[in-house]
Design goal:
By secondary structure, this protein is of the alpha+beta class. It is built from 6 helices and 12 strands. Strands 1-2-3-4 form a 4-stranded antiparallel β-sheet. A hairpin with a 2-residue loop joins strand 2 and strand 3. The chain is globular and about 65 Å long. The chain starts with a helix and ends in a 12-residue tail after the last helix.
Amino acid sequence: MDEKEINKLGYETVASNLYKKDNVLFVQHAGEIKEATKLTDEQLKHITSMKAYKKALSDLGQKDQDKEVKTTSNKPVKIEKSQITGSSIPLEIVSPKVDVDQAVDVFNKFTEFKQKLLSADDFLYIGKDGKPTVKSKAAAEYIKKSGWRKFSTVFNLDCQILSKSREEHEDPEGLYYVWTYAVRVTAPNGRFQDSEGAATSRDPFFTKGGKQLPEEKDIMLKAQTVAFNRAISDLIGGGAKTAEELNT
């Protein structure tokens, strides 16, 4: 939604992507209007002005809940010496937030989506010689950009560019440059994954094996694509290596 649509719902604009309603602050995050204090400072700083947010909190006489440390129990936490590191740590076992059957169901759905949603054009197959080939039992399978973008749409993921940079380098072979993109992909439940992708002007695909100069926009796009592919993969696909990360 744009700002006008949000205003029509009764939210008063305080700053860019920062709204007030009934003395509560809200932001638009991952396609939804959410109470700002429910997000972390790390999430907020990428979607609104932290200075405006802090001031608005102060004006409303509220505290930044993200900075408050709260305990869920009045019982003291037992701290013991770790036999492995010798450091003082709470001896609690990290436990999953869902049961086994639910977790298995989620990962099975990803596999099912992969089989039914993606077409042959969404995959790159690499043979044992490291070169692209046709689909076969011996070939390694990698999902391409088109496939990861389908997953992004189906899972309603929000994709943001956090930063981009260009660096020039020189070695005995001469000058070259590297583009790096930092991105964030956020799921509707607020869980997010940050990632970086880089591409160089010596990329063998765009230089045709060093025979020509690449278009810089192609190098930029590859760096961005690698970053988003990695983030989407890490968020929903178990961290599978993506096709654009291969130098083919």
